[in-house]
Structures are given as C-alpha cells and as structure tokens.
Amino acid sequence: MSLLSQFTEYQKALGVRQYHVASVLCQRAKVAMSHFEPNEYIRYDLLEKNINIVRKRLNRPLTLSEKIVYGHLDDPANQEIERGKTYLRLRPDRVAMQDATAQMAMLQFISSGLPKVAVPSTIHCDHLIEAQLGGEKDLRRAKDINQEVYNFLATAGAKYGVGFWRPGSGIIHQIILENYAYPGVLLIGTDSHTPNGGGLGGICIGVGGADAVDVMAGIPWELKCPKVIGVKLTGSLSGWTSPKDVILKVAGILTVKGGTGAIVEYHGPGVDSISCTGMATICNMGAEIGATTSVFPYNHRMKKYLNKTGRADIASLAEEFKDHLVPDPGCQYDQLIEINLSELKPHINGPFTPDLAHPVAEVGTVAEKEGWPLDIRVGLIGSCTNSSYEDMGRSAAVAKQALAHGLKCKSQFTITPGSEQIRATIERDGYAQILRDVGGIVLANACGPCIGQWDRKDIKKGEKNTIVTSYNRNFTGRNDANPETHAFVTSPEIVTALAIAGTLKFNPETDFLTGKDGKKFKLEAPDADELPRAEFDPGQDTYQHPPKDSSGQRVDVSPTSQRLQLLEPFDKWDGKDLEDLQILIKVKGKCTTDHISAAGPWLKFRGHLDNISNNLLIGAINIENGKANSVRNAVTQEFGPVPDTARYYKKHGIRWVVIGDENYGEGSSREHAALEPRHLGGRAIITKSFARIHETNLKKQGLLPLTFADPADYNKIHPVDKLTIQGLKDFAPGKPLKCIIKHPNGTQETILLNHTFNETQIEWFRAGSALNRMKELQQ
Q: Which residues fall in a compositionally biased region of kind Basic and acidic residues (predicted)?
C-alpha cells in the first residue's frame, strides 16, 4: 500500500476529515476563506448546524465564545460539555505558524510520515530578524544569516502544502488579520498572541507545535472546555484613551493568571466605539492574563475592515449569518467585569510584569517612590499588538505637533510596521516620514525588540534604565537581555509623547512642553483615520503558494547543521513508578517561558533541539542561592549552570524533576520550554499552578505536569531532597498521584499531586509523547 493510501486509511480509522472536504460544505454561498486559497470555503452552514444541535441539547442561551467553539465540535450531538471540566474534540479551520516555532512543528510533522497537511496552513517569517541598523539593512542581514532555516521552511511548506510568507512580509498576527481571520473562524497558531484574530470576531488560540501537528494531520484537536469571562464595555473611547488602555486595565484587574482556562468575551454598547484593529490589540494582549483567547462580536467596524482589506464577500456572508456571530441575549458568563470607556484613563503597565497597572498620570510619582529610572532611554512603537494603520496615524499625529514646535524626541525612538502592507501604506501617506522627522528609525516588518531581537548599543548589560513600548510583554530581560531594563507597556501614542518628553513624569493630558521658541504648549489628543482613505498599498509580493504537485520537492536537513536537527522519538514510559527523582532546580517566584527557554539570540537554534537545550532554565531563580543559572549538582556538590547539570544527570542515568511556583510557564507558546527538559532527562514538573499552553506542551512531550494538592507542600520540598512519584500504574483522570519526599537525614513525607490528564493524554505519557502515540495509531 502506498504512503498516501496508508494515510487515507489512517484518517478514516480516526474519523479524520479528508483534505479539501471543507470545499463543498457551504451551500448558501461559496465564499473562500482567503484570496490565497480559492478552493477552501467558509463553513457557516456547518457552524449553524452544530450551534443548533448544541443549543437544543443545553437548552440555554449561548455566549459568542460557545457558539464558535461548540460550532466546531467534531461530534456536537454526543460531546460532553461542561465549562472548565470536560475536554472538547474540535475541528479548527486553519493553522498558522511563525518561523521560530514552525521549525519544530514542521520537523514533528515530517516525523509523522504524513504526506500533506489536512487543513489550510501557513508559515510566517517574522521572528528571526534582529533590529540593528534599520529596516532594509536588517532584513538583508537576516536573510543571509538565516538562509538555511528560511530554505527549510520554504521547501517544507512546498512539500507538505503549507503557504509560506517570506521574511519582510510582516508579523504573523497582522498578516492573519489582513488575510485569514474572519468572524466565526476557529484558528490555532503556534504563537501565544494568536488571539489577535479575535478582533475580527474569530476564536484564535495560541498552541504549541505538537497541537498544530495534530490539526495539520486532520486529527480532532482537544481543548479543555473554556469558561467564559464577560467584559461589558459601556461609554466610548475618546481623547488620549485608546484600545490598549482597555486591556491594560483588564490586566490590572485579572492579573497574569486571572484568565487561565477562560475565553474573555467583550460585549456591550462600548464595543462600537473601538476600531477593528483596536479590538485586535485588546484580544492580542489577552495572552498576558493567561486567557485561552479573547473575542469581540461581529459589528460594522469589522465589516468596514473586511471591505477595506478586499474581503467584501466575507463581510456580506457574515451579515447573512450575523445571529451566530454575536452572543445570545441572556447568555451567562462565569465572571463579569464592567468598564466604562468614557471614564477610562490612559494606562501604562510595568515594570517586569504586564499586570502592574498605573494611570499615566500617576506612574511618574510611583517611579520616584520605587526608585525606577525616570529618564526614558528608548521609546518603541509597533509589534503585533500595536502596529495598525490607526496606531501609526495616532503616533504620527503626536509627532507632527512636536515638529510644529521645533521639537524632536529626547529619547531614542523606533517604529516597527506590522506588515509590508502597513509599511507601504504609511510610507505613501506620509506617516513614516513624520515619525522619522521626529527622530525615529523605521525597523523591518518583524517582531524585533518585542521578542528580544534587538542589538541594543546605548547601554551596557546590568545598567539600570527605563524603556517604554507599545508591546505586550515586559518580563525581566525580555527586550534586550538586560535584567536591569525597566520596561513599561502602553499605547503607541503615549509612547510617542513620552519619547518626546523623555521622562516618565510627563502626563500629556495635563503637562506642557517647551517649544524651540521657548514657548510652552500642550499636546492635543491625537486623531487619525482607522483605515486609509485610499486603498491599502500591498507593497511587495512576499507570499509563496505551495505547488499543486510537490512530489519532486526535496526537504534537506544536513546532519552537521547547527540550526536544524531531525527529531528522534522520546523513550516510552517503562511501566514503573518514578523512583528517586533528583531535583534539578526549585524555582523561586515567576518562571515564564522566557525563563525556561530564552528567546533573543537563542532563536537561531529553535530548529535544533540539542543546541537550544543549552538555554534550559537559565533565567529561573534557584531558591537555594537566589541566583539564576546556578544549581547544585547532587553528585559532585558543585554549583554550575542548569543545562550542564541536567546533561550530567542525563549522562549518568539520573532522572530529574523541576519544582515551580504559581502560573509556571506563563508567556509564550514556545514548546521548546517543554521539549528541552524532556530531551535532557526530565520526567516531571511539579508546581503550584501552570499556564494553560505550557501545561499542554509538557503533556504532548511525555512529561508529567503535576500540581500540589496543597500549595503549601511547595515549602516541604528542598533542593537536596529526592522524590518518588507513585500511582502511575493506575494513572487515571482525576486520580491524584502520591509523592514521597525523601530528605537527606533519612526522614520521609508523603504528599498528593493533582493532574489534569484525560485518557488521551495518559496515552501520550505512556507512549513517550503525543507524536509517538500518533505513530502507534498509524501502525
């Protein structure tokens, strides 16, 4: 039997949909999902059918989140549905991958042996371009340095039917919003800010690469049935208050873990005062509160955006099915927050965490009290969160006022366009030149400093300083690898105003600047068009279609490459309890995926598991000595780097465990934070609580993410102890495991560990990984 025939039989055995089945489902109107996939149609008729089945079963009004999620159920008639409890089997419409995570996702897909992706999928080159000299120069340099990786992704995309957006095309989430997101879509993306698409009324969820592989293989995707947090918006935005202030306020209310396991659903009369791209900003940064995703109901602002981006046919179809793209009257939320936009003030959050919220009017006073540097060294606007035409226009409106009074930025100032389309359009319409004139440098259409791709020269590492950005995250060292950089996040227009003033003490709503002529003036609140009056300028064509016939396409990975490495399967569970696990590190405090697997200069190794494992937990603070990347080797008793110690244990057959605090693994979707501990011999991660994506990623790679039944038991474990985890032979959903803590003095304590594994996920553990289990099913 041919490989294609085996694949087809495998799909039939699993109840997997066949490639292009979506093409014949929409009966009322055949409207393509995107211009790039004319034969893949929007499935509103199936969405409607499934919603009706579920509504009849549940016999209650549905939230918008429930309509879209339950509308994509694999088996709506029989799926058990209970918010926060059951696992749903879903059929996403499409997959999107950025280049840093796509490497490992495509390597796993190649390992699966499948010939083609089963749903429309795309790769976007945005993470590997370092900000250094400016857009064109940085892009040329990136293409040269990353040629091997770009070639791998381009040829893998061509081989397996994945669309490829070349470097320079823009940030994945802006490209998705412009071309692929639509009201009611269920999209998964290998980046935590995938929820950006919720600004166009879709349920767009960040996942690890292994989840993407499942969907690309046509296997139903599992998601714990989300709770729904409602955010009712009243009033309207005006003046200096922007969409960014909505999510900065919500982050201050819910904190970095308050949205875990939930979809945040915005509704109410205030929604109509927010542009479509503004809604995307709010949904994008919902990742910072741990939310599964965020979403807005379909309205005229979305219709306007669809029309302007060449998708009037989708807008017309959405109008026809509008009742399914808004919440039912009387629907119930698990939690309800109300925000009056008319009373909302401009906010700035930070430093070191995105949920430390301050009104802009107060941050200077707080900074003085806390000893944070007041002088702003750099202001940075753009990123996937705030790089729309409207964002650039509002920033340019501020800059134009300063220029009229003979002023330029006192701080350094950088601008990151979200896409080639945005770059070309703001160049045509003069915004880019205004931002240059005020002292700005326009960077490449890429993530850049937001993810640590910043060759910063103005300070030395360890130098205390302040930066303000319109980005989404401000964890320690995230932007420039300097732990003493105090990073604050706010709106692009506030960043621009603060960069002009050069200090956190400036409040543009009340304070005056002094012009070149010595006269004082006050900046007026910015006003700008949400969309260009003319059509968007698409700029350069940066898209590569997968060929119809890819049978002759080769995908080469050199065995001597330092950037790419084919994957070897992880070992299966040996059927025994985990005895005498050594504690690699007991982490103190916040431990994000940046702490577990740093980005920045490490991004170049994202396709080479062994090389990137040299950054394992180098940012985590060891509770034993209060230091980063310094742990005791239990055999030699010497302190050394975490990766070196893990490699020593692996070489000597010593299995190990990590002990973590609250919300372990918050932040990025990067599955390398799960692959690395598995590769270096880890067996379990035991914490007070996990961030959603990271917990799933650990399960996918055959690790045990476990939580203390009593969070106080975290204090019973010491770095010098050994642990035995019992009960794995009877491993079952909802059944706690036993953990015996063996102290060096010979005494023992027994505690209970909880888990969230379901039957499918237990099979992943037994097989050694989700990918191993997929291969078992193929056989």
A: 523-536
Q: What average pLDDT values come out for the chain (779 residues) when binned by 10 residues?
A: 41 43 49 96 97 97 98 97 96 97 94 93 95 92 95 96 97 97 98 96 95 95 97 97 96 90 97 98 94 97 98 97 97 97 96 93 96 97 95 98 98 96 97 98 94 92 96 91 95 98 97 96 96 96 94 90 94 96 96 92 92 96 96 97 98 97 89 96 97 93 98 96 97 97 96 96 96 87
Please, where are the H alpha helices in 474-556? 492-501
- Look up residue 138 and give its two tokens: 């940085």
Q: How far apart are CA 409 and CA 440, in angstroms?
A: 8
Report helix, strand or coil for 163: strand
Whether the CB-CB separation of 147 and 158 falls below 8 Å is answered with no
Q: Please give the Cα distance from 669 to 190 (Å, whole number).
A: 6
Phi, psi of 89 (to 5 degrees): -105, 115
- CB neighbour burial string for 64-86, b if at least 16 within 10 angstroms, e if fewer: bbbbbbbbbbbebeebebebeee
Q: Which residues contact 662 (CB under 8 A, 6 or more apart)?
A: 257, 687, 688, 689
Q: Please list the active-site residues.
A: 126-127, 191, 473, 668, 670
Task: Tell me how far apart the alpha carbons of residues 513 and 498 are, in angstroms, rounded to a whole number.
Answer: 11
- Rounded CA Rg of the chain: 25
| Sequence-distant (≥ 6) Cβ neighbours of residue 179 within 8 angstroms | 34, 35, 36, 309
Whole-prediction pTM: 0.90
Query: From CA 94, how far away is CA 187, in angstroms rounded?
Result: 5
368 and 302 in contact (C-beta within 8 Å)? no
Distances (CA, A) of 201 to 91, 120, 302: 17, 19, 8
**How far is 344 from 595, CA to CA, in rounded Å?**
33
Q: Which amino acid is it at 202?
A: G
Instruction: Give dist(CA 449, CA 227) in Å, integer.
Output: 33
Q: Where are the alpha helices (DSSP H) in 568-641?
A: 593-596, 609-612
CA distance 776 to 734: 25
Asked if 282 contacts 274 with a C-beta cutoff of 8 angstroms, the reply is yes
CB burial string 690-716: b at 16+ within 10 A, e below: bbbbbbbbbbbbbbbbbbbeeeebbee
Looking at residue 144, its amino acid is D
CA–CA gap between residue 769 and residue 766 (Å, rounded): 8
H-helix or E-strand containing 40?
A: strand 37-41
